[in-house]
Amino acid sequence: MSTLFAFLHHLCAFTLVSALAIEFALIRQELTLASARRLQVTDIVLGIAAAALFIIGLLRVFFFEKGAAYYWHSHAFLTKFSLFVIIGLLSIIPTREFLSWGGAIRSGQAPVMEDARRRRLTLIIHIELAAIVIILLCAAIMARGGWV
């Protein structure tokens, strides 16, 4: 079971990173009806992957790995977990933007987004990607039993 949950955890993590990278690429392009739809779908995939990653990660912590006491006393884990929560909170901003496009998309029109808003969303997604790099560093530190 531990191997299965490790696999699922990694699958969700890679899906999340891929969706975030797709969002980053799409938000920098000209916003068309097709790209707006892709952004909405990609954001749904991102949300599902994040929720599954969170649940599977907690299941691993409490039932399939070294036990909760080990993880809650690991600075690397706490940093990793905190960054994941911060990414989740930051992701609310692009999600709200993408959801606000529903009316325009249903009417067959490309949503209108000011340059300042696009720059803000791009920056947020960029910050999320950078935080993931730090999460990966923390995971490598944890795998070696460091930073306890």
Structure description:
With 148 residues, the protein is an all-alpha fold. It has one domain. The protein has helices spanning 2-27, 33-64, 68-72, 75-90, 92-100, 102-106, 115-143. Helix 1 runs antiparallel to helix 7 (115-143) and helix 2 runs antiparallel to helix 5 (92-100). The model has no long low-confidence stretch (mean pLDDT 94).
The helix content is over 70%
Q: How confident is the prediction overall: mean pLDDT? A: 94
- The helix/strand order is HHHHHHH
The amount of beta strand, in percent, is: under 5%
Give the helix tally: 7
What's the total number of strands?
Answer: 0
For the sheet with most strands, the description reads:
none
How many domains? The number is 1
- Gyration radius, rounded: 17 Å
- Terminal-residue CA separation: 26 Å
**What gross morphology would you assign?**
elongated
Question: Structural class from helices and strands?
Answer: mainly alpha
Unreliable parts: none
Brief summary:
By secondary structure, the chain is an all-alpha fold. It has one domain.
Task: Annotate the secondary structure layout.
Blueprint: H1 2-27, H2 33-64, H3 68-72, H4 75-90, H5 92-100, H6 102-106, H7 115-143
Helix pairs in contact: 1-2, 1-7, 2-5, 4-7
